[in-house]
Design a protein that fits this description.
The complex is a heterodimer. Chain A is 43% helix and 18% strand. Chain A is of the alpha+beta class. In chain B, 30% of the residues lie in helices and 25% in strands. Chain B is built from 17 helices and 29 strands. The longest helix of chain B has 17 residues, at 255-271. Chain B starts with a strand and ends with a strand. Classes of the chains: A alpha+beta, B alpha+beta.
């Protein structure tokens, strides 16, 4: 453009425009610049329009073109700068809104079920597909349910006050020493309708008490899961099939199970069930005391005297029963070194061992 | 029971060729798992776990007998000539009937022989028993471990007149070998001479007639005592000896004479003793009747056919006298087996000999309908899972507490629950003596423990029975207790810190569906707890999906009202009064959503921000009618002393 047509102050403004534009650090400054250069009134552009109006006719065309070009150039530059500043402001705003996701977020509180309860619930789940439901009985029991009904002789040492807790004002009451009295209670209840029902099958998870001092492997209170099945023609093969399934469901399909003869007053034949030591795989270690096997539960066919006591004819009905030590199983699968941890209830232990799923 | 492999091989030579782990597996398969293997003086010792019903296995020979039956091996013959029965040198009277049917004895002059041989000393050491260097004692111990039959030697010169096996009389006493004076009960079986008791039968000898280095002449005792009586006496006097352990689990009456012969032979061989005479009072009791075993039973027990032809030799190898007839096997147990009563007992022996591993596996058929999981169990499980998801840790604490702690809580909870009916006779200690009336003391202790361990916030719950005294005994009620303490939040830039408040627990209780809210107990500085019977939670829905209830799709109108109320204003009363004048069905909710307490408010006042939500089932509400309702609610509030806050 031919600047010679413009007065010196406009030439000055034209020269200073790029620097002034750059100096606008924010949108407010840019708006002020915009007003000064291309605003409707009092701006350099308005001044130029006045000049144009007053210019001689023969110059008008040339001057007009020059003014338009200059104004257009300013407008374009301001538009670009405005876009730049708006973008920068948006970015600034976005940054102010953004939080580093690595900053610790508010954590939802996390609790846990007790590992022993979790394990018992798991056992119920394992037996559920076989048609077992859950039965419960009181923890304060009668001698009749805890001992007599289970064919435990009157002079059996387990009945002594060195092994069993008794109540002061109720000589016949004790703290149950196993979950087996639930068998007696359920059989007595169902005996009259057994034919109609077709049989009995249930698990009885629960707390039991024995007079043991508290140490790394003993507690005066612990947990058992009792199982009972009564039907017609029930034999050891059924017990083996059931426990073999259950142990594999609990410990994995490769779990190896061993049945060996044993003795309990309430079962005949009786057996103990071992699983291949999960720690050493059978080579022998501290946990399995070198034998390669860990004893997990006692079981057997229900003794005819036990059926008879509860009013069930052993000539017609037979069944099997088993009892699993919950702490023992929990300690074995988790390698927990001390039984007392389960009753100390340190939330760090509970969170790590119990979990939520 | 300790078994020395070398001594075992002397009874059953086939063992000599076995690896130790092979022997352990075999033992376990017979029902006697091995608890440990050790070396003592170059000999391998295994610790065998023998079940309580098998007293006959509690010796090297007894154990060997079961092993032999399983592997079809032969026991070494008993190397002992039988003594000739002669005339009694001292009368023996058996006056206890079936509790002692046979009493075999011999009198010997002790000699000047070399004493207990080295081999016997080493064997006793292997058994964890020190040799006394004294043939009557060491010989008796050695044959106990080897053959399982307890014997005793009296100083014959200190016995007076005769020997009587009888029940004790009230008031009689006996100083036993351990120097303790025992007050005898008429249920104690004892050996007496003319002067009184000289031994507790099958349990321990008396001090006054014991063998000493000065003893010149001994009278040996090898009898058979009833297991029940021995167990009871041992228990009554807290006197558990090797002898009472074996008699108490059932000894072999046929070993009475043999035991005497074996002991006499040891005295003669080791000490150069001279036999004066041997005689026996009574007889080995008649063997118990035969038990019948059928093929049908074997089939039922195993699900697979086992022929009587196969079962018979297995039982015979165990010492049973078996006769086969048309209706099955009739097997008479050997004298050493006291655990055979019914057919399944016999069947178990057949299975034990065949090996439990030969029994096939099958799942029993499902007869009848399976039952659903009980509502109680499902409720408890879901509740635990829910509380765990709400951040609470499930605890398991002991069911008994100290009387002081229990009393403190019973009085704090205002429950009249006498302790007598919940107290144990024989607790582990007084701090474990009362069946708890509340779970809160245990949870408080656990919460405090966790705080001491550095936890900022502790949330605990337990679902367990509590006990309430009734004339019939403690009544069990399953309760849920929740304890919450510590500092909430403050661990993240979005959650400011504040102490746990009792209102937090009320919120949880409400969330669990409690309509009548339990009292929140402040169990300690900032430790809050609630406890209530699970029954109060109400039953889970019977229906899978409840019946449909219509809801409004018209707009919700919301209004806030800030009220100045007295500090002690009851919220429930104020709210209820306002609800009364509002259109039921259209009022969706009315809640206090903020409480403002500030020094700039008038003295003794606080501000409650009440939020109303209205929604009509059939139309859009107008602003005017809603404002009218709020105004009428305000009027009611003002009637109760509230003011509109400007």
């Amino acid at each position: 453009m031919d600047m010679s047509l413009l007065p010196p102050e406009l030439c000055e403004a034209e020269r200073g425009f790029p620097a002034a534009l750059q100096a606008c650090g924010d949108l407010d400054a840019l708006m002020r610049l915009k007003g000064a250069f291309i605003g409707r009134e009092g701006s350099h552009a308005a001044r130029m329009m006045e000049l144009l109006k007053a210019a001689p006719k023969e110059q008008k065309r040339e001057l007009g073109a020059a003014i338009n070009a200059l104004k257009g150039q300013w407008e374009e530059s301001i538009r670009i700068r405005q876009a730049e500043l708006e973008d920068a402001k948006r970015k600034q705003g976005a940054l102010a809104q953004a939080w580093d996701p690595e900053l610790p977020p508010p954590a939802p509180a996390k609790g846990a079920m007790h590992p022993l309860n979790r394990l018992m619930d798991r056992m119920v789940e394992v037996f559920r597909p076989l048609g077992y439901h859950v039965e419960e009985g009181p923890e304060v029991e009668t001698e009749a349910h805890n001992f007599d009904g289970l064919n435990i002789p009157a002079d059996h040492p387990a009945r002594g006050s060195a092994d069993t807790f008794y109540l002061k004002e109720h000589a016949e009451l004790l703290l149950r020493t196993h979950t087996s009295p639930v068998q007696v209670r359920v059989m007595q209840r169902l005996a009259p309708t057994l034919e109609e029902k077709g049989g009995i099958r249930f698990l009885a998870p629960g707390r039991v008490y024995r007079k043991d001092e508290i140490d790394p492997t003993h507690s005066p209170m612990f947990h058992q899961v009792e199982g009972l099945l009564v039907g017609k023609g029930i034999g050891m093969h059924h017990l083996k099939g059931t426990l073999n399934y259950a142990m594999k469901a609990l410990f994995g399909p490769k779990a190896e199970v061993r049945f060996r003869p044993s003795y309990f007053p309430f079962t005949e034949p009786s057996c103990e069930v071992d699983v291949r030591c999960p720690l050493c795989g059978g080579d022998g270690c501290r946990v399995c005391k070198g034998s390669g096997w860990v004893e997990l539960l006692g079981a057997g066919l229900v003794h005819p005297n036990v059926l008879r006591f509860s009013g069930i004819d052993p000539e017609v009905w037979s069944g099997f029963a088993f009892g699993i030590g919950v702490e023992r199983t929990a300690m074995m699968v988790s390698q927990t070194p001390d039984l007392r941890l389960f009753f100390e209830n340190d939330t760090r232990f509970l969170a790590a061992m119990g979990g939520l799923d | 029971m300790l078994i020395e492999i070398k001594a075992l091989a002397q009874e059953l030579p086939a063992v000599a060729g076995m690896q130790v782990n092979e022997l352990c597996e075999l033992s376990a398969a017979l029902g006697f798992p091995v608890d440990g293997v050790s070396q003592e003086d170059g000999e391998t010792i295994i610790e065998v776990d023998v079940t309580a019903n098998r007293g006959d296995v509690l010796s090297h020979r007894g154990f060997a007998r079961d092993l032999a039956a399983r592997i079809g091996g032969k026991l070494a013959p008993l190397a002992c000539p039988t003594l000739e029965e002669g005339a009694p040198l001292m009368p023996i009277h058996l006056r206890a009937g079936a509790a002692c049917p046979i009493y075999s004895t011999a009198v010997l002059d002790l000699g000047e022989g070399p004493g207990t041989p080295e081999a016997a000393r080493r064997f006793l050491a292997s058994m964890g028993s020190n040799a006394k260097g004294f043939a009557p004692v060491d010989g008796s111990n050695e044959l106990l471990f080897r053959y399982g039959h307890p014997t005793h030697a009296f100083d014959a010169d200190r016995l007076k007149g005769c020997l009587i096996v009888r029940w004790a009389e009230e008031g009689e006493t006996l100083v036993t070998l351990d120097g303790v004076e025992r007050k005898l009960s008429p249920k104690d079986l004892l050996i007496a001479d003319e002067s009184g008791p000289v031994a507790l039968a099958g349990v321990m000898g008396g001090d006054s007639t014991k063998v000493t280095p000065e003893t010149k002449r001994v009278l040996l005792e090898s009898a058979w005592f009833d297991a029940r009586s021995v167990r009871a006496t041992a228990h009554r006097h807290g006197l558990h000896s090797d002898a009472s352990y074996r008699f108490g689990r059932g000894a072999d009456p046929a070993m009475a004479r043999t035991g005497r012969d074996l002991l006499a032979r040891r005295l003669m061989d080791w000490g150069g003793a001279v036999l004066h005479g041997a005689w026996t009072a009574g007889e080995v009791p008649a063997a118990p009747a035969a038990i019948r075993l059928t093929e049908a039973t074997l089939h039922r027990l195993t699900g697979s056919p086992i022929s009587l032809g196969e079962a018979q030799p297995l039982l015979e190898r165990l010492g049973f006298q078996v006769v086969r007839s048309a209706d099955g096997l009739h097997a008479q147990p050997p004298t050493w087996r006291h655990d055979m009563e019914i057919e399944v007992d016999l069947a178990e022996e057949v299975l034990r000999m065949r090996g439990y591993d030969t029994i096939p596996m099958a799942l029993p058929p499902l007869e009848g309908h399976p039952e659903p999981l009980s509502a109680n169990y499902v409720q408890r499980k879901n509740l635990a899972l829910r509380l765990a998801h709400l951040g609470f840790h499930q605890t398991v604490t002991l069911g008994f507490v100290s009387p002081e702690l229990d009393a403190e809580f019973m009085s704090a909870l205002g429950v009249d629950n006498p302790q007598g009916g919940r107290t144990l006779v024989n607790p582990l200690g007084v701090e474990y003596s009362v069946m708890r009336g509340s779970l809160l003391p245990s949870l408080r202790a656990t919460a405090e423990y966790n705080l001491r361990q550095g936890a900022r916030e502790v949330r605990l719950f337990e679902i367990s029975p509590t006990y309430f005294s009734t004339p019939e005994g403690p009544q069990e009620t399953l309760k849920l207790a929740i304890v919450w303490t510590g500092t909430l939040g403050g661990e993240s830039y979005l959650s400011p810190a504040r102490p746990v408040r009792s209102a937090d627990l009320v919120g949880v209780a409400r969330d669990l569906g409690l309509t009548v809210l339990p009292k929140v107990h402040e169990l300690g500085e900032g430790v809050f707890g609630i406890e209530f019977p699970l029954g109060e939670l109400g039953r889970p829905q019977e229906r899978i999906i409840p019946a449909f209830q219509a809801f409004s799709r018209f707009p919700v109108m919301e209004r806030d009202l800030s009220l100045l109320v007295a500090m002690d204003q009851s919220y429930a009363a104020l709210r209820e009064a306002m609800v009364q004048v509002l259109p039921q069905g259209t009022l969706q909710s009315l809640d206090c959503v903020d409480v403002f307490r500030h020094k700039n408010l008038p003295q003794g006042k606080q501000a409650w921000l009440m939020r109303f939500r209205f929604q009509h089932m059939e139309r859009t509400l107008t602003g005017a009618e809603v404002d009218g309702w709020v105004a009428s609610a305000l009027k009611v509030a003002q009637g109760l002393g509230a003011e509109l806050r400007g």
